[in-house]
Amino acid sequence: MLDFFPSRTLTLYLARLFVVRIFAVLVMLVLVLLMLDLLSSTGKILQVPGNGQAEIWTYATLRAPQLIARFLPYSVLLATIITLVGLNQNSEVIAMKAAGLSAHQVLAPLLLTALVIGVGSFAFNERVVTRATATLKAWDANEFRKVPRDSGVRTNVYLTDGTNILAAAAVTGSGDNTTMSGVTWYRRAPSGAIAEQLRAQRAVYAAPGWRLENATGFDVAGARSERLGDTVVGQKITPEQVVLGSVDPDAQSFWQLRRSIADFDAAGRRTAEFKAKWWHKLAGPLSSVLMPLLGAVAAFGLARSGQLFVRAVIGMALGFAYFVVDNAALAMGNFGGYPPLLAAWAPFVLFALIGETVLVRTEE
C-alpha cells in the first residue's frame, strides 16, 4: 500500500506545498467575506443601545467559524489548482513522471492531505461551528440584544395547532418554564386564509396554551389592529412539541441530530430533511478529498498543448459543478424528492467517478 505513495521526501514536499496554499486561500476568502458581512451587519448591531466594538468583535468570532466551514472545500479546490499549475509550470510533474510515478502516485500526497483536512473539518464543525451557529442564530433572532444564558436556546420555531400556526423567533428554557420571544400567532379561516394575526414580544406556558403578554391583534378582513393585553392561544401545543419543533440541524452536532431524528421518528414526524442534513455532516467535510481529483486536469493530460489556463479553468469548472450539484441534491432531499442517503452521497460518488474518468482518459 505504501508503494502507492512516492518517496517520503517527495510526499512531505507536496503535502507541505498543498497545506500552505490551502490555508493561504482560506484566510484570504474568510477575511474578505467577513469584511463584506460586517458591512451589512454592523449597523444592526450598533442600533441596539449599549452595543459597541465588543459586540462587533463577538459577531466576527461567531461568524468566522461558519465561513471557515463553508469555504474550506472551495479553498482546497483553489489550492489544488494553484499547486498543480505551479508544479506544471516548473516541469516538476514531468520530472516526477520521468522518475516512473503514475498520475495517481503524484496525487496521492494531495489526496492524503485532503483526507486529513476533511477529518479535521468534521471535528471543527462538531466542536466549534455548531455552537457558534446556535449562539449567533439566537442572538440574531433577539435582534442583537443580550440573550439569556441558556444552553438550550432555539430559534425560528414553527408549531401548528390544527390549521393555526404559532411562530417564535427564539425559545429558551424547558418544560413548564419554556419562554418564547418574538411570538406571532396566525389564526386561519375555514378557507385556509389568515384571518387574524397576534403579535407579542414574549409568551410563557399557561398549562394549557401559551400566554402572549401585551399582545397586539390585527384583523386581516377589517385591516385594523388593537391592543389585546394578555391572551392565551395554542392550547393543544405542549412544551414537548416545542422541543420537537425547534430542532435546527445546523446548530446540532452529529450525535445530537441523530437523537433528534430518533425522537421525531418516535413521534411519527417527518425526518427526511434532518436525515439528509445528518448524512451531509459526513459527506460535506469529506468533499475536500474530491478536490485534488477534480483539479488534477490542471497537471495532467494536456501538458503538451501548453494551454495551462484552459486546464485550470476546466479543473475549477469541475470543482464548482460539484458544489452546485451537491446543493441541489441536498435541497431535493430536504423536501423528500430524493432519499436522504442518496441526496447526501450521490454527488460525492458521481464526481469521484467523473474525476477518476477524466484522470484516466487524459493520462491515456
From TrEMBL:
Subcellular location, record wording: Cell membrane
Keywords carried by this UniProt record: Cell membrane, Membrane, Transmembrane, Transmembrane helix
Statement: the UniProt record of this protein carries the keyword Transcription: no
InterPro entries cross-referenced by the UniProt entry: LptG, LptG/LptF_permease
Coiled coil segments of this chain: none
Positions of transmembrane segments: 12-36, 67-86, 106-124, 282-302, 308-325, 337-355
Keyword presence, Membrane: yes
Domain of life: Bacteria
Membrane topology: Multi-pass membrane protein
Protein name listed in UniProt: LPS export ABC transporter permease LptG
Gene that encodes it: lptG
